[in-house]
Write a structure and sequence with these properties.
Number of strands: 20
CATH class of the largest domain: Alpha Beta
Helix content: 25-40%
Bound molecules: flavin-adenine dinucleotide
Shape: globular
Structural class: alpha+beta
Distance between the termini: 16 Å
Largest sheet: 5 strands, mixed
Number of domains: 2
Strand order of the largest sheet: 3-2-18-17-12
Radius of gyration: 22 Å
CATH superfamily of the largest domain: FAD/NAD(P)-binding domain
Oligomer: single chain
Length: 458
């Protein structure tokens, strides 16, 4: 088995912001979907993919979601009960455990405490960071290898079983012979300069695309194979989100502690998942609009800020295509119902923060200002339109869906494309619906299910 990866090898990893954006984020961190709002979409790059730079939250999908997939696929192996042992296995391999108090940090503790006082489910979150020291830098790559990203966990297992990894090599073509996928052509480049250094051809009886829910359809559209395979690139979901920041009398230093280490849910808001976030000080200043004349005021507030993302399982959809030079061309339309649930999630998040002792809250919403009560914040949000919200997403999925019908899906329940034998997809593209929780654990558990079937396929 040979694995081609566009990004650099893990040994070239340098955990700092500029290096991460340039080398470890797809398209330099510059992917933006246009539509009825502007939506930046982040995805990781390198041996380890998104897990190199993700926040390590490790949630299991709601049982209702997996059971709905099993029903649509008429395949009980995708039910919550059947996937549970795979979640167990993966969780053990990547060291998932609930964040512990000593390194969680004030921001996470505050959100967990506010939710607990209101009797809401949640608390400190499950994460795959067995060696976490709480430096808050997961998104630039763990500087101490305390996060069990796949370059340290699953890929070494593949290596032990004979897989070979070719980094700095972009797959550009699925080779097709006699109506079957027969291999892949890739272009190798210099890891620093990006200069072309040679062509790689891998011949294989089974070809698995695992370039992520943007990368997989981007490759197929750029090659010109997409149209023959069904609705490739359609139905993009992303879990869009906004955030609420609070101002506390105590010093919180929200960039210290576990990057995203606390969460809560609300019984009236299924599919809405507020969870803590960490951001560097300069990003916090931008989030509260502390620029120009407001900078001095912002700097005074900075140590006292706490923050919580509000993410929704989206009904809105988009699509992935490729530009002539092989970059992603993305569209995404936010649905009114998602915006409404985002607002309601932000209001409940404000309630949690006030309960935890903050004096004021603000959303990342154009000119919304600080608010002293939940009621005032709710009123200020009520008439805001989608383009008032600074949106962000890092969970692209569903662009080569699993399904039974070749007209409405791209792959079957084994990950094999309906229309090209020997070509499989094994990444977040295959999710039949939006998931509702941060997806890495489900990608790994679902990938294990697909892997079992790909191994058996003829
Ligand atoms: C900043 C950030 C924070 C996140 N936090 C969390 C979190 O806390 N918990 C969670 O569950 N999820 C989180 N996620 C999401 C999660 O990391 C991703 O959903 C997951 O990694 C996607 O897995 P995947 O296998 O679909 O694709 P990816 O992990 O994106 O892997 C695709 C790989 O394919 C490579 N590639 C793309 N095109 C080509 C090509 N043509 N040729 C060769 N290689 C190619 C890419 O470089 C990449 O390495 C976060 C994501 C980001 C960006």
């Amino acid at each position: 088995m040979v694995l081609l990866e566009e990004g650099p090898a893990a040994s070239r990893f340098r955990p700092n912001q500029a290096h991460t954006a340039r080398y470890h984020m797809q398209e330099g961190g510059g992917m933006v979907a246009t539509g009825n709002g502007l939506l930046p979409i982040a995805a990781g790059r390198g041996v380890g993919g998104g897990t190199l730079i993700n926040s390590a939250l490790s949630f299991r999908a709601p049982e209702t979601v997996l059971d709905s997939w099993a029903a649509a696929l008429q395949d009980e192996d995708w039910s919550a009960a059947a996937i549970a042992p795979l979640y167990d296995e993966i969780s053990t391999l990547i060291g998932v455990r609930r964040m512990w108090e000593s390194v969680a940090g004030r921001n996470n503790q505050l959100i967990a405490a506010g939710a607990a006082q209101l009797g809401l489910p949640g608390g400190l979150a499950p994460r795959n960071t067995p060696g976490c020291m709480g430096c808050g830098e997961c998104n630039f790559g763990c500087p101490i290898h305390g996060k069990a990203s796949t370059n340290l966990t699953l890929l070494p297992i593949a290596w032990q079983h004979g897989a070979r990894i070719q980094a700095d090599t972009r797959a550009v073509e699925v080779l097709v012979e006699g109506g079957r996928a027969a291999g892949v052509r890739g272009l190798a480049h210099h890891p620093d300069t990006g200069e072309f250094v040679g062509e790689v051809r891998v011949r294989a009886p089974k070809v698995v695309l695992a370039a992520g829910a943007i990368g997989t359809p981007r490759l197929l559209w750029h090659q010109g194979l997409a149209r023959s395979l069904g609705p490739v690139g359609d139905g993009l979901h992303v879990h869009p989100g906004n955030a609420v920041l609070g101002l506390h009398d105590d010093e919180i230093y929200l960039w210290n502690g576990a990057t995203q280490g606390a969460y809560f849910t609300h019984p009236d808001l299924p599919g809405v998942l507020p969870h803590a976030f960490t951001a560097p000080p300069e990003a916090c200043l931008a989030a509260i609009g502390a620029v120009g004349r407001d900078l001095a005021d912002g700097l005074a507030k900075l140590p006292h800020l706490c923050g919580c993302v509000v993410m929704v399982s989206d009904h809105g959809t988009g699509r992935v295509r490729a530009t002539r030079d092989g970059r992603a061309s993305l569209r995404y339309n936010f649905e009114d119902a998602d915006l409404e649930r985002t607002k309601r999630g932000m209001v409940e998040t404000a309630r949690v923060l006030f309960t935890a002792g903050v004096r004021q809250v603000i959303g990342i919403v154009h000119d919304i200002g600080w608010h002293n009560s939940v009621e005032s914040f709710e009123a200020a949000l009520s008439d805001r339109a989608v383009d008032d919200f600074t949106l962000y997403a890092a969970h692209p999925m569903s662009t080569c869906r699993m399904g039974l019908d070749p007209d409405t899906s791209v792959v079957d329940a084994s990950g094999q494309t309906h229309r090209l034998p020997g070509l499989f997809v094994c990444d977040a593209s295959v999710f039949p619906t939006s998931l509702g929780v941060n997806p890495q654990l489900t990608i790994m558990a679902g990938g294990t299910r697909l892997g079992q079937r790909i191994a058996q396929a003829g």
